[in-house]
Amino acid sequence: MDKRSVYMDYNATTPLRAEVKASMIADLEIYANASSMHESGRRARSRVEQARASVAHLIGADDPDRLVFTSGGSESNNTVFATMFHVGRAGKRRGIVTTAIEHPCVLNAARWLQSEGFPVTFLEVDQYGMIRLDQLKSAVGPDTLLVSVMAANNEIGTVQDMRGISAITKAAGAWLHTDGTQAVGKIPVDVDDWGVDYMTMSCHKLYGPKGIGGLYIRKGAPIEPLIRGGHQEHGYRAGTYNNLGILGFGIAADLAEKDLPSYMSKMSSLRTRLRDGILAAVPKARVNGHPESVLPNTLNVSFPGAEGEAILLSLDIEGIRVSTGSACASGSLEPSHVLLATGVGPELAHGSIRFSLGRDSTEADVDYVIGKIGPIIARLRSMSTVAF
After folding, report:
1. Would you say residue 150 has pLDDT above 90?
2. What number is the average pLDDT over the span 101-130?
3. Does 79 lie in the same domain as 54?
4. What angle do CA 282, 283, 284 make, to 5 degrees?
5. In terms of DSSP bridges, do strands 95-99 and 286-288 run parallel, antiparallel, or are they unpaired?
6. Would you call 215 exposed, middle or buried from its count of C-beta atoms within 10 A (0-12, 13-18, 19+)?
7. What are residue 148's DSSP bridge partners?
8. Do residues 217 and 1 make contact, with C-beta atoms less than 8 angstroms apart?
9. Structural domain contains residue 388
10. Residue 1: inside a domain, yes or no?
11. Cβ(176)–Cβ(165) under 8 Å?
12. Domain residues for 298?
């Protein structure tokens, strides 16, 4: 089998889609400050607002003005938690409820609030990475200020029941935030149907440029700017508009919405092919995440008797690019906090690989990976002292 170059790390980031790249190149001359009142500034502002409408439509937001452009998911998430600091300090509610499998930027923001005296509950999840609604119901109460649950997990792909979570949160009178970074563009997202008050998103996860993201804020939900300065974004996020990034975000959103049905169908088919092929090629391999409520492009597999970094590097030698978990935690030697939370032991968690498919993935790519993974795991197991 000839060596191929196979990228299966789309949950970490996606390539700039050709249509988005072409549009951004064509828009390079839209350099004027979108806050300026002259004709060039008004033209830039018009394109910014066009992009805002496109992104809002992708997530089911009726009012585009409820969308604030940010630098990405981490800034958006931190804006929500910083807002809760101000609101909680001035009010009676201070309780924060989140989960044990959130992205590091949410976990660390929650821990910061905890260090500032805010009671924080980190909900456990079941073996599939789903939160238990009965536990959520027990955790929220009259003192709860915010519930934050990611819509879809970046490592195992499990998709949460946002409607059920919203019903419980609203009954308790708390605000609901969801990190939608991995969900937007991969599954249908509707902020009104989900009933969320805040939702985070990041453009580079849906074939757009890096350095641009968004935060949806429901009308009436409190918001305090993380970055203070000028009047941009209705005063919610200061700084000169990132024209080019915002315009790219708008094009990427339009394309993601148009292609979503075909994308989901293709990803689901390829994921099934990859899953079944790996399980047939590698004895005792274990699939992590929910068997049904899962992102159509995401497959997380544990390989007993093999170490994750060794698997990753062996695949990389064969031209296959994957991840051992979240890209934001790739420098850590600790096992995945997500897998540990689902009950996977440390040794098995260390031997796990995330395969995340994308628009450019093909059946030939999948078959190439299946053909390489068996011999790689067999070789690594032969050198291992771990029983499996």
Report:
1. yes
2. 98
3. yes
4. 115
5. unpaired
6. buried
7. 177
8. no
9. no
10. no
11. yes
12. 6-15+260-383
Stretch 156-177: mean pLDDT, rounded? 98
> Tens digits of per-residue pLDDT, 77-100?
999 999 999 999 999 999 999 999
- The pTM assigned to this predicted structure is 0.95
Using a CB cutoff of 8 Å and minimum separation of 24, what contacts does 309-317 make? Answer: 310/380, 311/351, 311/353, 311/376, 311/377, 311/380, 312/353, 314/376, 314/379, 314/380, 315/353, 315/369, 315/372, 315/373, 315/376
C-alpha span between 143 and 84 (Å, rounded): 13
pLDDT digits over 281-303, tens only?
999 999 999 999 999 999 999 99
Residue 263 host element (H or E): helix 243-281
- Total residue count of the chain as it appears in this document: 388
Give the active site residue among 328, 340, 378, 380. Answer: 328
Which among 221, 255, 289 is the end of a domain? 255
Of 49, 53, 51, 61, the closest CA to residue 251 belongs to: 51
What does the pLDDT look like over 193-248, one tens digit per residue?
A: 999 999 999 999 999 999 999 999 999 999 999 999 999 999 999 999 999 999 99
List b or e across 105-120, with b for residues whose CB sees 16 or more CB atoms inside 10 angstroms.
bbbebbbebeeeebeb
CA 356 centroid distance within chain: 12
Per residue in 121-140, pLDDT tens?
A: 999 999 999 999 999 999 99
Please confirm, yes or no, whether 328 is among the known catalytic residues: yes
CATH number, domain containing residue 199: 3.40.640.10
Is residue 63 classed exposed, middle or buried when 0-12, 13-18 and 19+ CB atoms within 10 A define those classes?
exposed
